[in-house]
Write a structure and sequence with these properties.
heterotrimer, A alpha+beta (134), B alpha+beta (489), C alpha/beta (430), B: 489 residues, alpha+beta, FAD/NAD(P)-binding domain, D-Amino Acid Oxidase, Chain A, domain 2, Arc Repressor Mutant, subunit A, 3 domains, eight-stranded mixed sheet, five-stranded antiparallel sheet, 12 helices, 23 strands, 23% strand, C: 430 residues, alpha/beta, Immunoglobulin-like, seven-stranded mixed sheet, five-stranded parallel sheet, 28 strands, globular
Chain lengths: 134, 489, 430
């Protein structure tokens, strides 16, 4: 559980690290001078995660966009990197309007510079044209 | 939406009785139609029926139930052969565990003799266990009736309707009758959504709602007693625990809780018998399940809770007199079939003959059709074919090589065939083909069945329902909500 | 009759397990490998798992399901000695490793293999298995079925959703439904702790403020034609609903994420013995079942939480199946020592739900995979009294892996702890 306790400028937060399946239980403490103390991580990535989670929480967005002329009506896509968490909903709305046409290859850029993040949305699988599928 | 045809006969209610009658009528040179409230025929009490073709020792000699049960039982071999519906005479066993029960059992034996039940025998517990090794050790005496059988009730109703339609009858589904009037030009039937149908004769085979319909025709009939039954289906893995249908000694209200092999190789346990204030509560309950389990474990101890794969419930139209009730109104031109509870499935073909006779007595000419075809085209059940036959079937139609339901090995070819024979819904496909009836209960095949139904019916998958209007499976196309779309659910 | 095809290694299922097994079998020298896949493409369930989180162990990257599958598919397709039959359903399998299958073009296929790898995956537990009382309206789906509708078929099965069970697929679908504009009202879990990974609780529920009710279950489904709501009740320690705790949650959809069951109908047809604890075959360190020459890997063997371990396991099976096939002489008589070697049974002891493999050759260095029976802060894992490892923060949802080394064998045999050829793996809190 992400539990926040705020006392003046000090902040104490418990969180689950989502970097890997281990799911370490982290505790972050922000002192009055703004310094962070982090405990509970089993690797360096957990420490970085906790720090980001306080300063700039981000998530990789995985979803679908519509695709024409393919054996399926949807193409799975992802952001190349994690985007700010508060942009997820807006990004979904934008991607709901996107429609592509097969064929598509894994890694093809579907949307460049999503919401000015400098991060692209790419296809996460191949999708052949229906006519090309025997 | 008015229908132009003026029918000779309209049958209201497409359960196993109504469809049997429609098929009987389609033998004759007349124009007959069936009105069914649900999206498909056989979806009232029929669908939830246990599928037992009774021998006829349960009912009082001289009653309609006794007469029509024994008569109906005799008709099943030919009927199911003509319609290609699986039917097996697996035999029935009524078991006694106490001296008191043994005495009652002897009375049923005598009753069976009087009713003309063939081949009955009384066995002691050990002799019975040689035939059925999984019977409880406590069972001391058994009445065995080899003429008892099992059938798939929904499949039978669907097959009779299909055969009737191929012989010229019409079936209208999702038609719920609101009123019936009788005038110089015959009967006018109005449905809840405003459609009208005209006929010279009508038959009320509306099951649980047949009392309401009889009253629409001005008859003063006692109310039927809705009696709910819950049943539970066990995994095929334990399908061979028993071969006979196992009955306890009955109670005054019902034949008791049974262990029933199905025509598809599963075991079913149930039903409960609970009188209900309403006619539409088909929910299952924890108490019902517990009651059934503890009772049937007393008959066959190897039955286990973890083997249950599905549950269902239905409402019987309990008769206030304890017997079938046959009435007529409007100078005999309206025939009412009421209180058709167990052994209604067994009796159905005989009831159909009787109803046709009642119509004839009221003046309906029954002239045989020279070109009546009693046979329904064979249903290909891929799983049951030999390797050679499978090969042939696939060569003819490659859709039979696409297994859609992996638990029951049901192919796309069978599903397409079911749609062409009248399936309109996911449950309709399921009950006709068994796709979705297996261990995964449709988890794997439902998306494919929806797709195939939509393609064959030429509609969007959004219009595909589980069992008729209001039970749509899908709510919206992908991205619809994100584009600000609203649905009315 | 019709012609029988011959192959060295036949693999039933072209999902993550089948793909890795095929490549491993070829690397180990199998000349001809056949993959039988019922879908129109390879990849299995990964193709509908469009979320990321796959491959951290194997590729040190966070891949989506399809991306993970594409780490294998092109290699399989490029190998002319791996024959892939798509749209092919295996109908029967015998202990003699003969199969029949159906294919839309080839019709009924008969195939005989020197060794067989079972890689059929698993299926979802359903409402019937739970016996939830109430009506049977439209709108009740297993989480995986809903995932297929939403991610592949392009339809939303509902707009207001309750999820029963906190398995990973259910948690992932809670996020997907929310992201696609539906409302997830609650996730309801009968156990006092979640069934899925902690990271999925965090990123799929907490990120979207979706409530998780623990020690609770759905006690009734409402709605005649379509789901209109569910009743949720708290349960006691014996999982019995506590009267008076009922709350009604309006919804149009109930998703079930209440567990997966290895799909072993074919295995049983081939007389393969199953372990009631895993629901999958009993295997040795080579993932060979008790039927010589039939191997198993992936979710058909036991339900995994990480695909990375599926691939590892499939490689073990693929390599061993290839070795088995190579040892066979032309007339099919085996000249290996299988069945004669010294095997020890490994049984789950206190605190362990299951351990795999269930049989290990004496002295073999193997990784043991296990699940604990309940969450524990800190445990000692011991094998018949010999301490093997210590672990922290263990939960049944996370499969543990420990290595059984040569020195362990020495200690076990020396101390006489391996009497009766049975070893017992226990997880004790410390």
């Amino acid at each position: 559980m992400a539990i926040d306790t705020q006392i003046g400028q000090e902040l104490k937060r418990k969180m689950t690290c989502i970097v890997c399946p281990t799911g370490c239980q982290l505790e972050v403490e922000k002192n009055a001078d703004g310094k962070l103390s982090i405990i509970g991580f089993q690797c360096r990535r957990g420490e970085v995660y906790a720090e980001n989670e306080i300063t700039d929480p981000r998530r990789v967005l995985t979803t679908t966009v519509k695709i024409r002329n393919a054996s399926l009506p949807l193409l799975p896509v992802r952001t190349t990197e994690a985007i700010p968490k508060e942009l997820l909903a807006k990004a979904m709305e934008i991607l709901a309007q996107v429609e592509v046409t097969a064929p598509v290859r894994t890694g093809d850029v579907i949307v460049t510079n999503l919401l000015d993040t400098g991060i692209d949305v790419i296809a996460s699988r191949d999708m052949k044209r229906t006519e090309d599928v025997a | 939406m008015g229908e132009k045809t003026h029918y000779d006969v309209i049958v209201i209610g497409g359960g196993v009785v109504g469809t049997a009658l429609l098929r009987t009528l389609s033998r004759y040179q007349l124009k007959a139609a069936l009105l069914e409230k649900h999206a498909e025929v056989g979806w009232g009490a029929t669908k939830a029926n246990s599928g037992i073709v009774h021998a006829g020792f349960h009912n009082k000699p001289g009653s309609w139930m006794a007469k029509l049960c024994v008569a109906g039982n005799r008709m099943y071999d030919q009927l199911c052969d003509e319609l290609d519906v699986p039917f097996f005479r697996n035999g029935l066993m009524m078991v006694a565990r106490t001296q008191e029960e043994e005495e009652i059992l002897q009375q049923f034996y005598q009753q069976g003799l009087e009713n003309g039940v063939p081949g009955m025998e009384i066995l002691d517990g050990d002799a019975a266990r040689r035939l059925e090794p999984n019977l409880s050790e406590e069972i001391s005496m058994v009445l065995r009736a080899p003429s008892g059988g099992i059938v798939l009730p929904f499949e039978l109703a669907a097959a009779m309707a299909e055969n009737a339609v191929s012989n010229g009858a019409d079936v209208y589904t999702e038609v719920e009758v609101a009123s019936i009037s009788h005038g110089y030009d015959g009967f006018t039937i109005t449905s809840k959504d405003g459609g009208t149908w005209k006929a010279d004769y009508i038959v009320n085979s509306a099951g649980l709602f047949s009392d309401d319909l009889a009253r629409m025709c001005g008859l003063d009939v006692p109310s039927l007693i809705p009696r709910k039954g819950e049943e539970y289906i066990l995994d095929q893995r334990v399908g061979n625990l028993v071969r006979h249908t196992i009955f306890p000694v009955p109670t005054p209200k019902s034949k008791g809780i049974l262990v029933i092999p199905t025509a598809e190789g599963n075991l079913m346990i149930g039903p409960t018998a609970l009188e209900m204030p309403y006619k539409d509560d088909v929910s299952t309950t924890t108490t019902g399940l517990d009651e059934i389990l503890s009772f049937t474990q007393g008959l066959v101890p190897k039955i286990q809770r973890r083997d249950i794969i599905a549950a269902f419930a239905g409402i019987r139209s309990g008769s206030p007199t304890g017997d079938f009730i046959f009435e007529s109104s409007n100078e005999g031109k309206a025939v009412h079939l009421l209180g058709i509870e167990s052994p209604g499935l067994t009796a159905a073909p005989a009831i159909a003959e009787l109803a046709a006779e009642m119509l004839a007595e009221a003046g309906l000419p029954l002239k045989e059709k020279p070109n009546f075809n009693p046979r329904r085209p064979k249903v290909i059940r891929f799983k049951r074919l030999s390797d050679e036959e499978k090969k042939e079937v696939i060569k003819e139609n490659p859709l039979y090589a696409h297994v859609v339901c992996r638990c029951e090995t049901i192919t796309e070819g069978e599903i397409v065939d079911a749609v062409r024979r009248g399936a309109r819904t996911v449950d309709g496909v399921k009950f006709r083909t068994r796709a979705g009836m297996g261990r995964c209960q449709g988890g794997f095949c439902t998306p494919y069945v929806v797709k195939i139904l939509a393609r064959e019916l030429g509609v969007s998958p959004l219009e595909i329902t589980k069992r008729g209007k209001g039970s749509e499976l899908l709510t919206a196309e992908a991205k619809f909500f994100l584009k600000g779309g609203e649905t009315n659910v | 009759m019709f012609n029988t095809h011959y192959t060295d290694v036949a693999i039933i299922g072209g999902g993550p397990a089948g793909l890795a097994a095929a490549l491993a079998a070829r690397r180990a020298g199998a000349e001809h490998v056949t993959v039988l896949e019922r879908n129109h493409e390879l990849g299995g369930i990964l193709q509908q798992c469009i979320h990321n989180g796959f491959g951290l162990h194997r590729f040190k990257e966070e891949l989506t399901g399809p991306e993970y599958a594409y780490r294998f598919i092109p290699q399989v397709e490029a190998d002319p000695n791996i024959h892939v039959y798509l749209n092919t359903m295996v109908l029967s399998l015998s202990p003699e490793k003969e199969m029949t299958a159906v294919h839309p073009v080839h019709g009924l296929i008969s195939l005989k293999a020197k060794s067989v790898i079972l890689a059929m995956g698993c299926r979802e537990r359903t409402r019937g298995a739970l016996s939830i009382p109430g009506t049977r309206p439209a709108g009740v789906y297993t989480a995986g079925t809903a995932q297929r509708f939403v991610n592949m078929d392009g339809f939303m099965p509902g707009k207001r959703v309750v999820i029963l069970g906190s398995g990973d697929i259910g948690l992932i679908m809670a996020r997907r439904f929310t992201m696609e504009g539906a409302k997830v009202e609650a996730v309801v879990e009968i156990m006092p702790y979640p069934a899925g990974l902690a990271r999925n609780i965090a990123q799929c529920l907490e990120d979207f403020d979706i409530p998780l009710y623990l020690s609770a279950t759905v006690t009734k489904i409402h709605g005649k034609d379509r789901v209109e709501g569910v009743t949720v009740s708290q349960v006691d320690n014996g999982w019995c609903p506590i009267p008076g705790t009922e709350r009604y949650i309006p919804c149009d959809t109930l998703l079930l994420s209440v567990g997966l069951i290895p799909e072993n109908e074919l295995s049983q047809e081939a007389e393969v013995s199953l372990d009631p604890r895993t629901g999958g075959p009993i295997v040795d360190e080579n993932r060979e079942t008790l039927i010589s020459g039939i191997f198993a890997c992936g979710n058909v063997l036991h339900v995994h939480d990480l695909v990375d371990y599926v691939s590892d396991e499939a490689e073990i099976a693929g390599e061993a199946a290839a070795r088995y096939a190579l040892k066979q002489t032309a007339d099919g008589v085996l000249n290996a020592t299988n069945g004669k070697v010294d095997k020890f049974a490994i049984k789950p002891g206190d605190g362990v739900r299951y351990v795999l493999p269930q049989r290990v050759t004496k002295g073999a260095e193997v990784d043991l995979y296990l699940r604990v029976s309940q969450p524990m802060d800190a445990i000692t894992l011991s094998l018949s009294g010999l301490t093997l490892a210590r672990k922290r923060q263990v939960r049944p949802s996370e499969m543990l892996k420990i290595r059984l080394k040569a020195q362990h064998w020495e200690s076990l045999l020396e101390a006489g702890n391996a009497e009766g050829r049975e070893l017992c793996l226990a997880a004790e809190p410390r």
